[in-house]
Amino acid sequence: MSDEQRNDLNHAATPGGALFTCASCGHSQTLPEQLAGRQAKCPKCGQLGAVAKAPLPEPGIDDVKLDDLLEAAPAEKEIVLAAARPAQGQSSRNQGALALESSTRPVTLADHFRHFFSGNLPLNLGAGLFGGGNALLVCLALATLAGLVSPAAGLGPHALPMTLVPVVFGSVLFALNGRLNVALGGPDPSATLSVFLLLAALGADLSGRVPQATLSATLLAGLALAVLLPGVLGVLLSRLGLADLVRFLPSEALGGMIAGFGLLLLKAWFAVMLQANPALGSLAGLPVFEMGEALARSVGSWGPAVGFGLVLFVVQMTTRSPLWPLLVAALTCAAWTLLTQHVALLPGWSSGVATWAATWTSGQFVGQATTAPQLFGHGTLDLLSQQLIERVDWLALAARAEFFAAVAIIGILPSLVRTSILESVLERDAAPDEQMRLVGVSTMLSGLLGALPSSLTLSGSLGMRAMGASGPLAGFVAGLVCLIFLLLGAPVLAFIPSFVPLGALLAIGLVMPVSWLLRDARNPLSRRDDVRVAWATCLMVALLGPVLGVFASLGLGAVLSLTRGVSGGGIRFVQTGDVFHSNVDRSPSERRFLKEHGGRILVLRLQGFLFLGTLHDLLRVVSTRLSARPLRFVLLDFGAVTGLGASAAIGFRRLEALARQRGLLLYLTSVPLELEENLEGLGYRMADAGGVCRVALNLDYALESCEDELLAEAGALEKRQDSLELLLAATFPEPRLVPALIRCLERVEAPKNTRLIQQGDPSDCMYFLESGKVRVELALPGGKLLRLKKMGPGTVFGEMGIYTSAPRSASVITSERCVAYKLSVERFGLIQQKAPQLAAAVNRFVVALLAERVAEENAKNRAAQL
Q: What is the pTM of this model?
């Protein structure tokens, strides 16, 4: 056979494609279409020649011949290309791996050292100094509550050390062992008030009935039990891994309970004020029209405390920084000192000012003793003495068992609630069980010294962070400041008027209900029901007292949790992108890539009522997946969600922080418009290209977007205009028959929004898509359209049209300009008659295609049942 005959045969045997022609010797040979426009070296003479695109002839019905099935003779020599097309890039599993900040506790001594001094050293030192000073102010305020207990108990000289010791132990332990970078310990106002009210109740039970020694020993034992019980409970919860269960209690109920203790604190403040100025008690019996004049006459006995308290309250509600409250207190003390020491400079006012100054002597409330808190000459450890144990009235303590239980609960719960909030603000996992252990240990250490329970303080921790603190050194310095004041600060107390701690106590009592009910509790996700629950629990504590109020609030919270739990709130099922794909029918190479790398897409379908506990489980699932394999996208489907609680705001903030830290992109699907607006109020930048969150109409669109981005990043997205011959070569059962098949097809060019298949029309053909994209839509009653699938180059649709005469079940519409090849029923019949081998290959191709789709659906169903 001559070269010319062979060239003609090669040219005729390959429809379309590209044709190489040597300008030197005239040799020509057919090549794949993607080589068109390049140069190649001739296998005969070695000269370069041009590769041009060969036109595809329009096939006719009579073109199908048995000769088309003959195998073409192999090329004598391979053509060596002068410039080969670059290979498609592929991504490995390590591609895009992120260097993540570890939230685990340091292991080695060097790790501890680096962690302790992490962050900006000057800012940490400054924040620690001011944070410690602000903690001193809080301790001075809470020490005044010792006035609630009978003076016979002798708590006065030891009140201030009782409040300072928890700051020292808590702050130091949190700094050395905690996972929160910025954490400050200290006495919790609710727990402190509960302990003093318990001691006051015990004193009232025993006063006048038992000797002084018995009263003192019983109160000492009561204090020890009231402090050690929360510590033991905290360690026990930590050991059993139950600290996380608090996340399932409605935060609005716990916040309302803390607000209720704020109202009780205001009541206690008034009682302490009456002790300071008994004359104020007579004002309550005056008629309303006379009370104003009487208050004006006695303004010197209540005005300084109220005025300072209101100013401090406004400052604390305006800023979180501890600098300004401390500055207000320092300026007030300086002004009082100058006024009292230079009273002679005010002629005619000296006697009145001296009397007023004597009224507000600091030692009356906070005591002058700043040694270690040894109550009544004995420490809590002295309870081991048999003589002291015999003096304790154990029956009186047993009679107040419910009070001890309430104190234990209120000594633990605030720290757990604050841990979740600090996790969200500091963007760090605090390991609540470990944090609870530290709270329990610091509380027990405080109890052994006869001090009050230790707690994680929210305002103090956020205040240091507001000043730029970012490392444990800040909390350690704050604890050290309180320790120095505990040992050496007695002379300073002479310069602090008692209206300063009383005013600070008033400010604390005002901040607690206003913050938990009006400011911090109201977030974009708060509903009317959440606000009502918060107010209800607040009023329960305020009206029923610290015992019944605590148990009633917990009961209400438990009922709400059970009610929400009945809805099955949480994760419906978890799926990954390697088995769960969008309804886009992709080319074989794209499908293979997504099976290998689609695991970087995590799909979480949510359901029921969502709150902090359920979102914490979601965070745990995401973190576990991140530790097992790299993730790029996290898709959250809200289609089955029935509602969100106010506490869900904390979970969403943590989720957004986790996405930023780990380089994730969040897709929220089937999101109600109201929720989208609320998430934007929480800081989710939905429309910002640099944000980490996107909103998609439904899960299918989100999956398509994620798949396209993965394919584009790896260079595997089919963007080039490959010929249908190349697209089918990888999947057709008999690749050598593809050219013959293409000659039997009818080429169709369709502009955008062309209906290639209409729902309800007779089935008479199938299509092979060469370029462009089409969408499959189902018309529903009422004029609604449901997108079933999207298809791209190399895919096939309408295949059942050559096997059944049933009407089309859906419509296929072009989403852009498309080129497709149509195989009609008539042409397929001719193929079956004249080329049965080709017809059998088409049948096997369609069967394999359908089997692959069934297998994919089965994999989705199995994943949904896990």
A: 0.70
